[in-house]
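#lab-general

N.A. 3:47 PM
ok so I finally got the sequence cleaned up, no stray characters, all 517 residues accounted for. can someone with queue access submit it? mine expired

B.Y. 3:52 PM
send it over

N.A. 3:53 PM
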Amino acid sequence: MNSPDLVIKGNVITMVNDKPRAKAIGVKDGRIVVVGAINEVEKDISETTRILDLKEKTILPGFIDSHTHLTATGVARLGVDLSSVTSVNEAMERIRERVHVTPAGKGIQCWEFDSFKVKESRFPSREELDAISEEHPISVQHYDLHFAMLNSAAFKLAGYTAEEEGVVTDSGGRPTGLVEDPAIFKSVRMMGEEIRKEGHMEALLAVAKEAVKVGITTVHAKEPLDDALFIIKNQDQIPVRAKPLIMGSIEEDGLLDKVLSSGIPGERICIAIVSDGSIEGHTGALFEPYSDDLDSIGMLYYSDDELHGFVEKAHRAGMQVSIHAETDRSVEQVISVYEKVLAEYPRTDHRHRIEHFEFPLGEHITRAAGAGVALGMQPAFLSINENAENYRKLLGELRMRRCHPYRSILDQGILVSGGSDSPVTRLNPLKGIHNCLTHPLEEQRIELYEALKMFTINGAKIGFEEKTKGSIEPGKLADFTVLSKDPHRVPYDQMNRIEVEMTIVGGKIVYEKDMMA
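B.Y. 4:20 PM
back already:
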């Protein structure tokens, strides 16, 4: 064996079933060459081998966040942060401060506003935003990215009309400035254009720094094609690895052909679309009305035939398909389409994905298992919903029994990975793991090893990257997360108190707590 150029010592959790623990790792040229006892790893070292002794700190495979919007998160980090505001007045004051230092005509992008948490339980109105500035396009995005309030300048810049689906109007048919599904995505794209032109790399570096600080070494980045190609082109400048999931819509002419001819690397190109909206926006598609709005059952973006035609074409082209489906009616539609396409054109190990899968019916879990569908889920959603209390208000007690059913899913043998949907929630795998262990429904709690798998080896598998990532064993990339404590020796309810001490990508330290605190 060639001599390692780096030896890392510590409490190693490998995520390999037949060899779960080790004391040292040998790395050469950014890959793992040996794992085992210290004497086993050090027997072939040379005078030039670097030794990184982490004492009893715990080393895990690098965390994988399997659902992010990397560019959108970077744009959010450069915008106005409204995540902590408790009133409309506080939000407007922060916006006013940004206006004072921003040239006229340049957009003011405000992110992570939560209309459920401010004391007025509403957005700033269009008139209130206009009073701050009529010369700056201002957009206040709800944290789930499914609805936003725009001032008049932003509404005009985006090209909205009163007749457009998703544009909210008053009793006289005049736009209020509020836009929601499906019109919302025009606003998200429009407000990101300035950043893409002037500060795309700055935005990516901002979110990459955030990712490595919480132990993430790979993100699955759901991006429009141009943004994905920009990330791929500049991957060497970004300290976190990015696997692109190309985000588009069925209406986009020639989307699949463009993606297939774009040169996207990887074993399987993934194409991502949306089936329904969000629970918080009352646009997640339900069979029965929302508990707090008996006139709404949400919406489906596409007809069954439209969705089937798209999935069939992508499947036959050898692609992996990822579909956003939050609630029972949309999950039913997506699973039915997957089942039909797979019956017509069988393919083993397709790993087609459903994203979110927050409130499936019991039969949906069984059918997902039978169809070999993988699930990209976000345990952090339990936190932003105040330990699921918001879910209860929106959907009622009976449907709450189906909330994020991790135990039921894993008992069916389904591949499920963990993500953040950043910027919807902050990047933080340890928080996601904590939520899996302390689920508000005790019967849906899972064990620590299962939760760790969601953010390591399962994250690799859902992206067809298990040969190079997700566990600590020879031949794989030297991507590691170093924790202050061994998760197996910490009470479940204190899991989110563990700190990330160091993040290593390709054998290089990209984050160290003492240096970047």
